[in-house]
Amino acid sequence: MEFVWMLLRAFVVGGLFCVLGQLLIDKTKLTPARILVGYVVAGVILGSLGLYRPLVDFAGAGATVPLTGFGYLLSEGVRQTIAEQGLIGVLTGGLTASAAGIEAAILFAFLVALVGRPKDKA
Fold this sequence. Notes:
Blueprint: H1 2-27, H2 32-48, H3 53-59, H4 61-64, H5 67-85, H6 89-115
């Protein structure tokens, strides 16, 4: 039964991120690209202030999968690397922590590009 509640929490929190993004698209003049960047920056800021961790503990993948979760991962990587290696962690920590996700995105984009056929929009 706990698994069902965990899935429900993840679905609701992730869905709320999507609803917020859709409202920003519909009700403001912000472009989707700016909203996505804003989500990442918000994740970094909330993660660095220690405010995003409770949401991750509560919602699991509902908080770590959206772009705010990527920002949180960057801030956590920087924090951990600074603790281990000092100030150089500011430059290396975020990319080290998120390297697997970035690599997966590049690999899957490449595979889709091999299989897909581009079409002219004209």
